[in-house]
Design brief:
Strand content: under 5%
Oligomer: single chain
Largest sheet: none
Radius of gyration: 21 Å
Number of domains: 1
CATH class: Mainly Alpha
CATH topology: Growth Hormone, Chain: A
Length: 443
């Protein structure tokens, strides 16, 4: 089999592995979040805004361990790292099964923490592997494609998580004759973990990029050293732009959605449908952004994403509580978010060197989840003032205005100059590495 065929099949296997991992994270997360949100079986345990605690269990491991993960991704073969963490996922699924069967919130939260830790080690490897199995000219499309499948997985995870929660803890009013299926969510998580482990073996074998790297067994020192390497460079500003966006979307906006169950007086399954709408829209936005980019990185798309999502936050904050209207608003917001994400993600890959890419992506992951944690804290603070959850979107809109201002005042010129320098293109040329193929061309 030729290297081209091997790497193409490897990209397919990577997508399948990432798909299963993202689906599993969200299946377990959704069951937990529905359980701790308003009206859930554990709502009284964590109190008002309890879903933020569940989100923190998913975010904190990325902050603690992404530095280690980035080092492992550089020190060892990224393919070997992918396989190892997927095997680990099977063991975590067994812990989740036990916690769900026993209806033990703390054991389930522990399994959520563990699966997030596993994902933290997977992150730098899965994104760092793309430049090793694909030509750099295909990275924008590759990122758009892998993000699309990731968000399809998020959709399915959210969509499955709702019915699984209804089966696990049926509402006595809506489902008066239903018996709790305490074994079902854990079994689903285990099966998806096994499938994801199997697909990881299809990723092509690759050499380690920095086999002489000494792993530093310190929590935060690797982040500090990596930041010192990139401080003052356009790569540092790329990370700042990405983290600010994640602060708004991942830290605040995503926590609003579970509360629509009470706001709209709908079931967990219907609430999961709203989450699925958002996930589908982000996936489509990522895919379209990747195709529009062609064989280029187009930072101009960031402005479209930032302005568009900011406008939609304000719209969502004032919309009447009507299921179809909320679904349409979330769909438009998600689609526009994809245009912000793809260029920044691709710039993180192309502006970092092969020797540092794993550590840079580890720092990128860490900063993303620091932003999510700060957003979770902001959500908790705003909720404790008594503000209705849907009005929190107005806070997101104000933050979006700041993000947009930073792009036009600080980031735009830096990104464009860095990409021209990287591609050795004249200042007045398009930021392309070769003529763009039609949007319908295969990756």
């Amino acid at each position: 089999m030729s290297n081209l065929q091997t790497h193409h099949s490897g990209f397919v296997s990577l997508n399948a592995t990432q798909f299963c991992g993202a689906a599993n994270d969200n299946i377990l997360k959704q069951v937990v979040i529905f359980g701790v949100a308003a009206g859930g079986i554990w709502a009284d345990v964590l109190g008002e805004g309890g879903q933020a605690i569940g989100s923190l269990c998913l975010a904190v491991p990325f902050v603690l361990f992404s530095g280690f993960a980035g080092q492992f991704s550089d020190r060892f073969s990224k393919r070997d790292v992918c396989v190892a963490v997927k095997v680990w996922e099977i063991a975590i699924a067994l812990v989740a099964m036990a916690g769900l069967w026993l209806v033990n919130l703390w054991l389930v939260l522990g399994s959520l923490f563990l699966i997030a830790t596993q994902s933290a080690f997977f992150g730098p490897a899965k994104y760092g592997i793309l430049p090793e199995i694909l030509d750099e000219r295909k990275l924008s499309r590759a990122n758009g494609t892998i993000n699309m499948f990731t968000y399809i997985a998020v959709i399915l995870g959210c969509a499955v998580g709702g019915p699984l929660y209804d089966a696990y803890a049926p509402d006595p009013v809506q489902f008066p004759d239903a018996k709790p299926l305490l074994w079902l969510p854990g079994l689903v998580v285990l099966i998806v973990g096994i499938v994801g482990t199997a697909t990881s073996f299809g990723i092509p074998k690759l050499k380690a990029q920095n086999p002489g790297l000494k792993i530093q067994m310190r929590l935060f020192q690797p982040y500090i050293e990596t930041w010192r390497e990139i401080a003052g460079t356009p790569l540092a500003q790329v990370m700042a732009a990405w983290s600010f966006f994640y602060f708004i979307v991942g830290g605040v906006a995503m926590l609003i959605l579970p509360d629509y169950k009470a706001l709209l007086q709908i079931s967990a399954t219907q609430t999961a449908g709203l989450m699925a709408v958002l996930g589908v829209a982000i996936g489509i936005g990522d895919f379209v952004a990747g195709r529009v980019s062609g064989h280029a990185v187009r930072p101009g798309l960031i402005a479209l994403g930032s302005v568009g999502t900011t406008l939609m936050y304000f719209v969502l904050g004032i919309l009447p509580l009507n299921f179809p209207l909320v679904a349409i608003g979330l769909a438009v917001t998600g689609f526009l978010a994809g245009f912000y994400m793809v260029p920044l993600q691709t710039m993180t890959q192309v502006l970092s060197t092969e020797e540092q890419r794993g550590r840079v992506l580890g720092l990128w992951s860490c900063l993303s989840f620091v932003a999510i944690i700060l957003g979770n804290v902001l959500f908790l603070a705003v909720k404790r003032t008594g503000m209705p959850s849907n009005r929190v979107f107005l806070v997101c809109g104000l933050l979006g205005l700041i993000c947009t201002a930073l792009y036009y005042m600080k980031w735009q010129r830096t990104f464009e100059s860095a990409l021209r320098l990287h591609s050795s293109a004249p200042p007045d040329s398009e930021l392309e590495m070769e003529p763009e193929l039609p949007p319908t061309a295969a990756l």
